[in-house]
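User: Could you write out the 3D structure of this protein bound to N-carbamoyl-L-aspartate? I've included everything you need below.
Assistant: Certainly. Input first, then the structure.
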Amino acid sequence: MTSLQTASSDRFPAGSAAFPHKHLLGIAGMQPWEIAFVLQEAEQWVALNRSGAAKHDDRLRGLTIINAFFENSTRTLLSFEIAGKRLGADVVNMHAAQSSTKKGETLIDTAMTLNAMRADAIVIRHNSSGAVNLISEKVDCPVLNAGDGTHEHPTQALLDALTIKRRKGRVDGLIVTICGDILHSRVARSNMLCLTALGAQVRVVAPPALMPVGVDLFGVQPFHHFDEALHGSDVVMMLRLQNERMQGDFIPSPREFFHLYGLDARRLALAKPDALVMHPGPMNRGVEIASHIADDLERSAITEQVEMGVAVRMACLDILTRKARGVEGWA
Ligand code: NCD
């Protein structure tokens, strides 16, 4: 029996005990059954989103959600907006480029301003690790981390786990290889925590300069040779070089990087014959992944990851606003 099955609905603690957190700040601190609970809750939203007809549920009607994004985003911002709207909430987006932070306002003053507007949930992306935790201490409503610096990106890890679970039937016991800029990637960090909590065997691959010191403390196996790590892999997750977080040169050239760490057909053939290819986006084609691999719908789950992103974010918004909505059991 897999860890996800062990935590099936009848084994979750009841009501709010299934998710005893006010905020969603990171995967760190979440129990495996809490992760499994979010994934299970997301299934209904996958079904609704695929239903074709009116993809709408009104449970968040009258609630206001603020998406405060201090860093660029396409997928995460849009999917949080769509998620809130599909649940009937009023969703407002704040883009940092147009906000007062550009006029020297401190993060705490911005947090107090958002709080005074009496939002029912605030979704935050920020380029400083820890900024989202700080804001969560200053506001009254639930805060969801949409990515903070190199720290965590919990909804990305949850949507990745949901994608793997649906495509492979389980997460427990799978070999998942994450390759790329592990050092600067909050996606890698949240996925290492999430996938190991669900019982996967996680391998991380990066050039020495892009591998965090002590990464093995996450319970993952570090590799510097991609070919070696690929043997027996069930899932291959590719990550972008986070150039915006690098000071100086970490790699000789994008061409050299692709040669050593890029995923192409020859390399993919080293993994299991049915290995799944994933990428959180945005992709840099020809740098970490060859176009023909990214576009191979049989092997690549990249668009499915985006789809699961909406469902997982609907689940998170629903779960975290249950107390405020007086849903029974959410003390
Ligand atoms: C990632 C992010 O912003 O951390 N993208 C995403 O949310 N889909 C990864 C990245 O920017 O490379």
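The pocket of N-carbamoyl-L-aspartate is lined by residues 75-76, 147, 153, 156, 186-187, 240, 242, 280-281 (CB under 6 Å).
User: Perfect, thank you.
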